[in-house]
Amino acid sequence: MNKLFYIFKRKLTHICNLKPYKETKWLMPNGNPIGVYIYNCVAEEKVPVILNDPTLATWYSCGPTVYDSAHLGHASCYVKLDIIQRILKSFFNINLVTAMGVTDFDDKIIKKGHENKTDYRTVAKMYEHEFWMDMSSLNVEKPMIVTRVSEHMVTISQFIKGLIDSEMAYVTKDGSVYFDTSKFPAYGKLQIMQDSGEASDDAKKNKMDFALWKGFKPGEPSWQTEWGEGRPGWHIECSAMVSKIFGSQVDFHAGGIDLQFPHHENEEAQSCAYHNSRQWANYWIHVGHLNLKETKMSKSLKNTMSIPSILEKYSADTFRMACLISNYRYSMEYSDEVMLTAEDVLNKLKFFLKDVVVYANQKNTEVGDYNNKLLSDLQKVKENNLESLRTDFDTASCINSILNLVNNTNKIIKASTTNYYPVPVLLVAEYISQVLTKFGLKLTESSSDNVTNTFIDSLVEFRHTVRSNALKRKDKELLNACDVVRDKMKSMKIQINDSKNEPSWVAIK
């Protein structure tokens, strides 16, 4: 044990000493390494996850601005973040305290209220409720804490006051407050600044300065503060709410890749300045865009698809599988081809799990035996998958190794020999089922489906009996009739898998 710790510590020291701080800009936290490596945009490489308490971590996700319905791009982001959270909790036994900020006060929300001739708060509540319904339909776990901007105005104003008092921010003539980037040398650590030239706004001292508070404008909701009336800027909201919940540092801060700059950059700058620290968020997690024909899906491009409309065509499990077989950091292409591939993978695994039950309960006279090779394959897959998850949550490699394990096990199940290996086959199925469930796949039918399922079981079994007899007699007419039943069932979203022993079926979208 001491030797392993020494080796791991030596590797950490090597990583830490690869580049001086000014170049890497990422500080290795003090604490306990949990054996997981994650890509960090500040370090521009995979870095070890180190927690103060090896069993406890804090996590904040930037949530939606609730002025409209969530779309499939949001679904991709939050499903992938949900998968990562589940991995940390289920595979590495981390007690993850999760929070999400909801922007329920914004220019777009005010505008939507004017368009609909209703109060902006009504707009925000309606779309937030719809957002949580969409997340539930995708089996995305709701965060433990939900913070709303409208409920934290005092916290936000106090945070801004602290920056003004420390001279890291300045008040302009119209009552606005800007963060002074010239006083924060580390500005640009998350992403190189696009333009740091002369100020384009007379109110700003420097071009990259950003608004913490917007001065009062007639006809807009506003709040009174020591420096004047107005409302908060976008970036300050998350910093203030996170600091109230988690204090001067947060372990994981997550969101879409489009938030890396300027939103997360500005969060890091103002939070470090407020807390007088060199690093606020230890690990930034950014999810790649969901693309349609190489174009990102966004409301501004008017190419979005609603979450309910996609779930009418494909199941939530199918969409989650599409996320699992992609890399969370890179762009994900959305197309029917991609979704059908995910659906095929999901159905193959469902068929396998059903076939195992049939195999283990088959009526024969053979005595069960162990298959050492299959048990060895299972152990290797377990070890390799854990290593893949340790390496920046590589779920695609996990699914691929599981499919290979299924192929090897199917050879045993479908072999026309007298060997019978129920124990290792059941252990394989149990492992696969556990992993998929930990990834957030449901794989189960509701109790209301039991009667329907029993009827389908009976129909499929009857068809199998007829088909088996027809094969023995080479009765083409009956075989054609069986094919018609199979095709008819498929048109009704029931796919039958014929086998030599007993058939199985799965529901498809």
Q: So what's the overall shape?
A: elongated
Number of strands: 17
The amount of beta strand, in percent, is 15-25%
Helix content: 40-55%
Strand order of the largest sheet: 5-4-3-11-12
Query: What's the tally of helices?
Result: 16
**Main sheet overview:** 5 strands, parallel
> What would the average pLDDT be, to the nearest integer?
88
What's the N-to-C terminus distance?
A: 50 Å
Structural class: alpha/beta
Rg estimate, integer Å: 28 Å
Give unreliable regions as ranges: 1-24
What key phrases describe this protein's structure?
509 residues; alpha/beta; five-stranded antiparallel beta sheet; disordered N terminus; Cys-tRNA/MSH_ligase; cysteine-tRNA ligase activity; aminoacyl-trna synthetase; nucleotide-binding
Q: What are the SSEs and their pairings?
A:
Layout: H1 2-16, H2 21-24, E1 32-40, E2 45-51, E3 56-65, H3 72-90, E4 95-103, H4 107-115, H5 120-137, E5 145-148, H6 153-165, E6 169-171, E7 177-179, E8 210-215, E9 223-224, E10 229-232, H7 234-246, E11 250-256, H8 260-275, E12 281-287, E13 290-292, E14 295-296, H9 307-311, H10 316-324, E15 332-333, H11 336-360, H12 372-390, H13 395-413, H14 422-438, H15 450-473, H16 476-491, E16 494-497, E17 504-507
Parallel strand pairs: 3-4, 3-11, 4-5, 11-12, 13-15
Antiparallel strand pairs: 1-2, 6-7, 7-8, 8-10, 9-10, 13-14, 16-17
Helix pairs in contact: 3-10, 4-5, 6-7, 7-8, 10-11, 11-13, 11-14, 12-13, 12-14, 15-16
